[in-house]
Design goal:
Belongs to the YciI family. With about 110 residues, the protein is an alpha+beta fold. It has helices at about 20-35, 85-90; strands at about 1-10, 40-45, 50-55, 60-65, 75-80, 105-110. It has a single domain (about 1-110), classed as Alpha-Beta Plaits, CATH 3.30.70.
Length: about 110
């Protein structure tokens, strides 16, 4: 089954680390991407670059910025193939943001 691992963290959390810690975190992200269970993933541009779109009364309405004004922002995602939720949680725990004050939301993916 596929799971989306949505990575939330405080903006700039990696920049706040020492050079050695930052390099180690990036190495962990790259190693995670090489895991055969990782189907896809990407880091997102900063939340300030977001545009929210909704349709109301047949009109397309847009607003600048993220959907919610929060301390933590969606910074990236991974799509993984895991046998069950326990395995997906195990994978999520390997994501450095989870150790540096952020969180990883694990959600099963529905097929169309």
């Amino acid at each position: 089954m596929q799971y989306a691992l949505m990575i939330y963290g405080e903006p700039g959390y990696l920049e706040a680390l020492s050079d050695a810690e930052r390099e180690a975190a990036y190495a962990e992200y790259f190693a995670f991407a090489e895991d055969e269970r990782c189907v896809s993933g990407a880091q997102l541009q900063p939340a300030e670059t977001a545009t929210c779109v909704r349709v109301a009364g047949g009109r397309t309405l847009m607003t600048d910025g993220p959907f919610a004004d929060t301390k933590e922002v969606l910074g990236g995602f991974c799509l993984v193939e895991a046998a069950d939720l326990d395995e997906a949680i195990e994978l999520a725990a390997r994501i450095p943001a989870a150790r540096f004050g952020g969180r990883v939301e694990v959600r099963p993916v529905m097929r169309f």
